Amino acid sequence: MSLIQPFKSEIDFATGDLSPQRATLRRRLSDMKLMYADRNEAARILSEEGDRLIYEVQGVELPEEEGQIPHCTTRILPGRVGDEYHMTKGHYHARREQGEVYFGLSGRGYLLLQTDSGQTSEIEMVAGSAAYVPPYWAHRTVNIGAEDFVFFSVWEARAGHDYGTIERDGFRMLVLLRDGQPTVVDNPKYV
Question: What is the count of structural domains for the chain?
């Protein structure tokens, strides 16, 4: 195992900014257009309004070896593609037996979860909410508010990320605007 010097990060709870500056991943609508149920609306937004930012992740990169605990902040911007709220791509862990913890810093959102066997769960999150993602559960976060939804997450370094399964099959649940409220519904296009 690598010997790493102790360190700290300062976190701006409203923005998710880490200080000192850390590695940042930005996902735009062009990266997510196939993830939304209304692909025609995603294409329309891209052609008429441009390639909007959906979310960004600022992470502490550590070696993918036993004992290391990477962590990051994620900021999902408010908005919708059609009736579907902005969300992360979602993933399983490459090593499915690994869990993860999410801690809400600001805004409002949902943590959507699913298993390969068909179980689903949703957890509403606000500032101060701590949610546990057990082993074997895929997870995706959704911003259901009018401001940024920001959360902190931590996981075991060897967990890895399997985005491909969600890209291929979709996610079992959608969060849509219905009667003026965010509503979790079954995804009719789920494989």
Answer: 1
